[in-house]
Records
---
Amino acid sequence: MRGTLRRAGRKLRAMRRRLFQDPETAAWRRAWHRAELTPRFTPGEIRMVDYDLRYSDLLSFCPQWQDIFVRRVLAFRNDNPAPRIFDCGANVGLASLFFKRAYPAARVTAIEADPTLFAMLRTNLRANRAADVETIQAALWNSNGTLAFQCEGSDSGMIGTLPGAIDGRSVTVPSLRLRDLLEREACDLLKLDIEGAEDTVLEDCEPVLHRVAAMVMDLHEFDPRTRQAPRVLERLTRAGFSYAIDEFVPLTWREPLAGPQSPFPGRAMNWAMTVRAWR
Amino acid sequence: MAVTRTLRQLRRAAGAVKRQVAPSPAVAAWRHACREADRTPRRTPGTIELGAYTLQYTDLLTLCPQWKDIFVDRSLAFHSDRDAPRILDCGANVGLASLFFKSCYPAARITAFEADPAIAAVLAANLERNGFADIEVVAAAVWKESGTLTFYADGADSGGIAETTAASVGSSVEVSAVRLRDHLDDGAIDLLKLDIEGAESVVLADCAPALHGVRAIHVEVHEFDRNRRRGPEILTLLRDCGFTYAITHVTSLPLRQVGGGSAQNSGPFRHHSTAWVEAISAWRESAQ
């Protein structure tokens, strides 16, 4: 009897969530339906809640929106009403918009390497009440200069020399040392989504990591021969952070998969996970 | 385009209805177990029919996710060219993993280790009752040395060795311990399954010189203590011992956070668990 009641309650709550969606979820569902009808890698514009947004690829834009605005994976608490935030790997700007929504006075710097995405990022920030977000077109790295960057057209562009780099249109982009930014000023939140460059950049930043109060990082593993996660996590511990891992995603669509001769044929060898670090 | 989309949605809906109406035997058994668990109090021993098995349990609510994980999601499935692979099932609990291995490889030569004496008795009964008396049961904790250890028995799936379990759960009992490394010297191991609630880093470090005879490993890394993370050293050890590895799952366990589920635990990121389990598969590329 009690079991039946509990199950009925669960079903009712699921129906209520479906019928009375919050606006972010409703917008996400609409975008998702549209993505099914839109060919991949076709740029366009879409209205999401009170944002007018340009995108380069609707199918990768949808999960970004879901993560950031529906599941609020970047939410963080800060007593400072104007927290200093570095949004590294800003893509088309959803993270920066989310930070500005949570903290209208936040001082955000958004950094994106892909020239096409960077143009969209600027447009999106200006069109959506976030013109005060500073934007920098650069790939974060351990030196200032230029780098070959593989553009993928959506959310997987990366530095061409990294292990497991994807095929794509190669462009030359400026590179920027995150360490220089951190030496100039401390930050309340470092959001890092830089597609495989995490360890190189954090190794370079290690002497100044004490200037970072909190970090949300997408940690990627793209190459079975050169794993970086253990090194990255040990750096965090050495720099005095506590951390937690969440949102693990096996990248089953990226080669290589475990071979047919291995005991676990077809297992994904690439993955991404979210690491949250704090003091 | 619109027609394709409608067709796709219809096919998805039809698939969902079919799965609901005619579930696979493993899924049907899992649903049955969840329904029973809904009306059974926690930590009450009993017996249940699941699929082809008659199973004793110590806590039905923890048996459900174990069944789902092992028999529905087949998370322990592995491929071996040998008819009788040698398997060490460390942290065997009530025996689902060993039963699963036997369902894939009826001739598998399995040794199952379980530290909690009460659960080890259930394990032995389950294996015998379902016709697998050839599985060797060792009622001992796997550890870096033989002897006796203090063990926190929680009566379900979270008991652990006092030295490596961050929070004390349940009642403490003295249990015997065996050195896992001694069992690795007896010949090649096709699969080492290690789910030992926090002791994995100590045991693997001790076993490292003897891991050359192990072809594949499934290890659950328990990250419950935010002041003492073990993942990086285990992954580094696996690489240094010549394994290729893949993380296959990360499961947040907010209820296992040290210091309770207090929201202040994860600093500015409230409501994010500081406790999780990482499932890792490791293997040798040159194997077989």
Note: The longest helix of chain A spans residues 2-19.
---
Amino acid sequence: MSIIAELPLSLIVLCSGLGLVLIGLWGMLTQRNMIRMIIGFSLTDTGIHMVMVSIGYVTGGTAPIINAAVPMTEAINRVVDPVPSALVLTAIVIGLGVTAVMLSFAVRIYKARKTLMIDECTESRW
Amino acid sequence: MIKRLFILMMLALMALIFVQLASNYTENTSLSKLGRYYVEEGPRELGAPNLVTAVVVTYRGLDTLGEVTVLFISAAGVGLLLRRTRRKDGSEDLEQGDRAEETSGTHKAASEIVETATELLLPMVMLFGIYVFLNGHLSPGGGFQGGAIIASGTMFLLLALPESHISRLLVALTESLSGFSYVVIGVLGVIMAGGFLDNRIMGLGTYGALFSAGAIPLIYTLVGLKVGFELSAVLDRFRKDDTGPV
């Protein structure tokens, strides 16, 4: 228990993020149901976001909002890097858009073939 | 079987890369050079307490415009893939939809508890969404988050009152007008201030006030409206009656 408590916070987030990326990749590669593949994609996406956030963490840092709680004079030592946070904000929105388009493709394929199994879509096989 | 082994091998190699990455990781003890510049100069230059907002809206404003464009394209893609054709009797149907699988047109109504709760909570959810995007430069939040909250309010509405429909014209008008104004504000930044999407086209105001930080609240309001309406339209497209019983 004490070993876990001594680990840096961002390392825990980093490892969980990398684990999620692996789980998502496994899901995308092994599952044959399209909805499950999309869930795998979402997991990978979330894992990458966690990795990016953890990279921006500064020991003991708080949210980069400069107000009465974090005055401007001591901000430099007390806040986390705002750049990775901003990038993750962008990445989340893009991930949402991609997931929405994938799901609507799944809906269309289901309408056409009455199945969500990727093996049935043989004409796009190589 | 070979395929499975291949996948497992690939994942193991990937895990090896990740282990290497994680074992060499040391937590930052100070900000990067760029982060340091933003933290030192951001509040003075742009007047926005929330530095993530300062980076998203102004320093990396062009990226955000691209992000809004990607979201717009994906919403348009969903609209195209799940489009409906209006039939003579006024009901809508998914194009190429199987007639045999059509729903009879009667929606299963939500329970009274859900309906009453929606009437009570929906205005508050919408108000909270507006609050989040108006205060994007002061507190955690912003246009995308506020837009997502507004869309969750729409989801609520669609769950409780399945008969309600979202006006296509209103969505199209709000989306295109706010997107257009966003670009106009960006171009005004080139003419009146330091560059594309510079927020200093308006006065910076009192630091920490609601109407401060130049054009940031204005830009985030436009982004919030655009994202909220876009996501609402996407949710509307995914409704059950559009796709037939699953």
Note: The CA atoms of residues 33 and 39 of chain B lie 10 Å apart.
